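Re: that chain you flagged

S.,

Sorry for the slow reply, it's been a week of failed gels. I finally had a moment to sit down with the sequence you sent. For the record, here it is as I used it:
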Amino acid sequence: MTQHHPAAEVPSSPALPDFPMRRTCPFSPPQRYAELREHEPVSQAVLKVTGRPAWLVTTHEHVKAVLGDSRVSSNLKLPGYPHQFPIPEEMLREVRLMLLSMDPPEHTAQRRYLIPEFTARRMRALRPRVQQIVDARIDAMLAQGGPVDLVAALALAVPSLVICELLGVPYEDHPQFEEWSALMMNHDISPQEYGAAVMALDSYLDKLVTAKQAAPGDDLISRFIEKNREDPIADHTDIVTMARLMLVGGHETTANMISLGVLGLLEHPEQLAAVQADPELLPGAVEELLRFFSISDSGTARVALEDIEVDGVVIKAGEGILPLNNSANHDESVFPDPDTLDIRRAEARSHLAFGYGIHQCIGQNLARIELEIVYGTLFRRIPGLKLAVPLSELRFKDEALVYGVHELPVTW
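Prediction finished late last night. Pasting the structure tokens below so you have them in one place:
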């Protein structure tokens, strides 16, 4: 069993692996995950950003158990929280918690205001608009002619346009907030660069929220402001912080899944042919691609509020925990032959790509619709789509909290 180290202590043991671990193949989790699931489902690693130890939880069963446990906290201000970004100390003291980092009852209250914005019914009503946006972007690709970078032409553009419309953010500002967002998702920047990106985005959103408080529109931020006037649960800074989470979370993850999903299908032509032949397979294909890539592997970081036992291992109060979605989604006991992409996989919907428990992704219905429409429309309208460069030349986001590909040159 791995030796216990207090949360604030830097372990001297060279045996502890570093985290994050890199994927050796762009389509597979780090190889160490399978070894850990089999031999040591709850083990320790050293966080590269802080040099501190944290517990890695790797099986589907135990990841669900941790994410559903009220004795763990999402509060990133707590000592021992396993930070994966170089957040400056003074900023950590001052930072306002986002929905992702809140515990009940604050989390419950804010989520209650947001859930109606993302119901399945509201998302179905949005489908025609998403279809229009996707068609317009593909029109532009076809007019330009190949090769084009699918990340810039489609993967970033579609979710950015959709989330801008939902939030009431002027789309012409999106190049700037995408730049800030990319910095905020990067493990490898300095604490000063991270802090500057957050402050710049918050300054922009502060002005936007102020304008909506004076003149509300028909958008998510305005409706949140109106509800909050009737039953106050948040101050101005809370609303700015909520808007940042929605803006960054609403496009960063979906954009990466669009490009990776397209790449995954191009590299598995028999799976792509099946989807092209039978569009009814699309919803299942989306679930399987979400499982297969599991792009937000450790975005579900937690810290123990009291001693808890997971698989016979005692995690002490104040120690950081990383329940690894990518490992859980490749657990052989739940997903037979997990490293194979199988769009007909019956158990694909058991994936934890959107997390689990009270913090499960609030925008998952929106993400599913965007992915389904993009994959279906792209391969229907450009059936001869193919990579314009060898797979080996693609640059993957190994350094980011959300996995993806920097550029995806395609032609037809």
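What I noticed first: The chain is about 45% helix and 10% strand.

Talk soon,
D.
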